[in-house]
Amino acid sequence: MPDRGSAGALRRIFGRLGESVTERLWRLGFAARFFGYMLLHSGTALRRFQLTAREIYFAGVLSLIIILVSGLFVGMVLGLQGYDTLQRYGSSEALGILVALSLVRELGPVVAGLLFASRAGSAITAEIGLMKATEQIAAMEMMAVDPIARVVAPRFWGGVISMPLLAALFSAMGIFGGYLVGVQLIGVDEGAFWSQMQASVDVREDILNGVIKSVVFGIAVTWIAVFEGYDAQPTAEGVSSATTRTVVTSSLAILALDFVLTALMFTGGNAR
Amino acid sequence: MSNAAIVEIEHLSFGYDAARPVLRDVSLTMPNGKVVGIMGQSGCGKTTLLRIIGGARRPDRGSARVLGTRVNGLHGRDLYALRRKMGMLFQFGALFTDMTAFDNVAFPMREHTDLPEELIDDLVLMKLEAVGLRGAARLTPAELSGGMARRVALARAIALDPQLILYDEPFTALDPISFGAIARLIRRLNDSLGATSVIVSHDVKECLDIVDYMYFMSAGEIVAHGTPDEMRASADPFVGQFVRGEGDGPIPFHYPAMAFGEDLELSAAHA
Amino acid sequence: MNRAAIDVWVGVFVAAGLAGLLFLALKVGNLASFSTSPTYQVQAKFANIGGLKIRAPIKSAGVVVGRVSNVSFDNVTYEAVVTLNLDSQYQFPRDTSAKILTSGLLGEQYIGLDAGGDSEMLKQGERLRLTQSAVVLENLISQFLFNKAAEDKEAKDKK
Q1: Domain of residue A212, residue span
Q2: Minimal Cβ distance to A203: which of C1, C14, C30
Q3: Rg value, chain A, Cα
């Protein structure tokens, strides 16, 4: 095998590339096994619901402020931008449809998911990582309590339950923001705003699909968060890099899954 | 039964990776009811040995038997069943930071027994009383000093009256008063519970005062063992260096390096 | 945070989330109008359905009375067979006619029902006899051009 000169350098480059790819694949496999194990051992989290309720509080309730405020602002911006574009074609009455569909189908699940990943996801990773670094996880194992059942699973289910609720609240708040700007501020007809919206937003196709998206995002984000925390190096740098990885990987996962789900849900119908 | 060995290690070998073995062919026994110390420098493998006894790591070769059962073959439910008879005190306590001291000690009781809350209440207070911290029961670990946290962790380790108690460097970073308190507690609890204790440490003086038997390790092997009196009187240079805390001896002061002169001349050549 | 406080807040959170979902479903979406009321199916054949899609509204006098549930092709008569899902509370006479209309000028297409005068009502599984196909834009344009050409020719002949 060449070792010197350009051939050696090439070999090293490809070697490192292959190494990082295989390492990522191995890690993905490990994460998948971890996910399966966690699901199998979720009995405690669901039977002793007090544990999960506590996690719903920390992941969901504490994210409420940022979700509601962001939702309001996103809705208001949609109202402004939407009106600006629509009134050029004389269709300003369609503002309600624009705001509602944008939020319910896309912005609600996606933006709420991104905010959830950076607020709750990073907190979960840091918490579990610190528990690992301070040997609390090892102590639990020595006390014959499965840390995945007791620490990881409740956080997972807490996140999965919180996410759709947060996405719904984001969308609702956004529509209210759009209403505030469109109807109260700019003067779009209130009746047209709501009635056109109601005529075009379908519960099954739009709202339900949005809820499905937010559930999928919740599963992805929380899974990544608990896994990174559990797998973190038990040092300060280890925990901090795990937290960063959670936010980055979750965000990318949300955007990629959003594309896949949108393609399946919203364009597959037209092919009929 | 009362004179059987609680822990039997036979020809144990282990390495985190194949190139660097951490334990080489280690064999030792720990008789029932005694306090046994494992001492050595940092990195000699004593903490790894403790982890193998607790079943957290599996040896590459050899066997570890705890309470008659082979630890290295166990997983899942069987391992947990064995661990319920053991208690472990981690280096800095490893208390659960989101719970009070009371809840920390109550944790093993709540998880493993069906005892009613009133009974658990009394038991927890008794354990905390034994370590002198009944008054601090409602404090969180953040509000406890290092020594106090260590004692609460000790109370948690003995919550289910284990037969084997493992101590991982229990005296690290403690002030002299807490030091003495922990040392006396280890001895007293061992005797009153009728348990066996294993202390991994490098605090020679304190350990020699409380243990019944001592093993000295260096570079993954046992280099000396005996009762504290035997150790104090030992002619072995390694034991001597350790007991007297000498800077240089069988364990060299200098990390292996080339001759100093050469090293300096090399730097001069680059200047 | 003690247990009771956490439970309260979690309860509030879940309630708020469900309320948000309900708001979306009722005030924003069209759940309030039509989902679980009983329906009955009738069929209608069209020469051309144009852009009619499944779930397109069926309106009579401008009010939504049902939705299109299925569109298929009859390989014998070479016509489109549309299944209409009508709300049971609206009964139509057997000689009702169905037209495919367009919402606005270039909007989506829907079925308009003109009630007939028969005393007997349509029942489950029956077929509407009178149908009018969708207006296909290309046909309209070519018809217009043809008519225009014919008019011009007449005018020329008259001279």
Answers
A1: 41-266
A2: C30
A3: 23
